[in-house]
Amino acid sequence: MPELPEVETVARGVHDRVRGQRILDVWLGSHREPFNTPPARLAKGLEGRTILAVRRIGKHIVADLADGKTATPAAQWIVHLGMTGRLLVTTPDAPVVAHTHARAALSSGRELRFVDPRRFGRLELRQFPKDQPFAAPGAEPLTIQADAFAALFRGRKLAIKAALLNQSLLAGVGNIYADESLFHAALRPRRLAGRLTRTELERLRIALQDVLQRAIARGGSSVSDYVDANGVRGFFQLEHRVYQRTGAPCLVCATPIHRIVVAGRSTHYCPTCQH
DNA sequence: CATTTCACCTGGTGGC
DNA sequence: TGCCACCAGGTGAAAT
Questions:
Q1: Which residue has its C-alpha nearest to nucleotide C9's C1'?
Q2: Is the CB of A99 under 7 A from strand B?
Q3: In A116-262, at which residue ranges do the beta strands (DSSP E only) sit?
Q4: pLDDT band, very low/low/confident/very high, at A231 (cuts 50, 70, 90)
Q5: Strand blocks (E) in chain A
Q6: Among A73, A71, A105, which Cα is nearest to A89's?
Q7: pTM for the whole thing?
């Protein structure tokens, strides 16, 4: 998936194209996987409502929905893209590609579509006041301050790579940006989170925020088929230093990049630059 | 509770 | 060309 920078790019793109639009009609596919909310209830909660705003929270895309012309959200539509999910704004006559699970006709005459081959993505409706507004369990990586960042890892006996991937600590970091930020912070992925010094943790926080910001500026990373709401690919993969560069020379010291498995995920690092 | 492993899906790639 | 193993941006449940 789409990690934080890709989700941010999608959320911004969708926001620009659907803000203020009314959802006229919703079609949902038959696979059960993508629906955290039963399809009938999801469709009923979307139809007739107006999209006030679309934004990213962690790796989730949150659309605030209002009744009529009010400016107060009556509900939220939560979209998680999983590994292969895409949100597209198209014309109604655009070919419906395989694995399209949801189509929402908008008052602008366009359609908002959710496509997800692997079906790890999820769609959910939060209906106020019955449900709580969506909130990520973990901290926001882009704005977390030094003290709070250091406190996340204190006393933890797991690899820093695993800790970075834990969404209840930091919301939005995934496999690409965990590896890239550890490279820029010169830290090995298997270092135990609780054993990192305050200086190392601060180096990591700055590296993480820098990598995420630069990735957002490039529209995210397109590793295989990721595209934004306009069908445009991101370009941050051109700036990857270690991710999916196994055996290739480190761009700093020319040592071949190593690949190991940490927390069940492919993990890439430079054995010379990272300690 | 904290941490680790694995299942959940489809599709692409590379070896034989 | 076919078949098979392995890999992929994530995460929640089960096991330890």
A1: A1
A2: yes
A3: 122-127, 258-262
A4: low
A5: 23-28, 50-57, 60-66, 75-80, 86-90, 100-106, 111-115, 122-127, 258-262, 265-269
A6: A105
A7: 0.97
- Mean pLDDT, to the nearest integer, of A50-56? 98
A264 CB inside 7 Å of strand B: yes
- Quick check: bond before A129 cis, omega within 30? yes
pLDDT at A226: 56
Tokens at A40, concatenated:
């009938």
The two tokens of residue A221 are: 């990373």
pLDDT-derived band at A229 (thresholds 50, 70, 90) equals low
Domains of chain A: 4-127 (3.20.190.10), 146-269 (1.10.8.50)
Q: Using the 8-state DSSP alphabet, how is residue A110 labeled?
A: -
Nearest to A233 by CA among A9, A1, A4, A3: A9
Kindly state the tokens that stand for A18. Answer: 């659907």
- What are the beta bridge partners of residue A111? A90, A105
Q: Can you tell me the distance from the alpha carbon of A246 to that of A267, in angstroms, rounded to the nearest whole number?
A: 9
Residue type, A97: V
Cα(A233)–Cα(A82) distance, integer angstroms: 17
Tell me which residues of A are annotated as active site. Answer: 2-3, 59, 265
> Does residue A98 reach within 7 angstroms of strand B, measured from its CB?
yes
Query: A17: which 2 tokens?
Result: 């194209």
In chain A, residues 142 through 181 whose Cβ sits under 7 angstroms from any atom of nucleic acid strand B: 156-159, 162
List, for residues A123-153, the tens digit of each pLDDT value: 999 999 999 999 999 999 999 999 999 999 9
State chain A's mean pLDDT as an integer.
95
Q: Is the pLDDT of residue A224 over 80?
A: no
CB A92 within 8 A of CB A105: yes
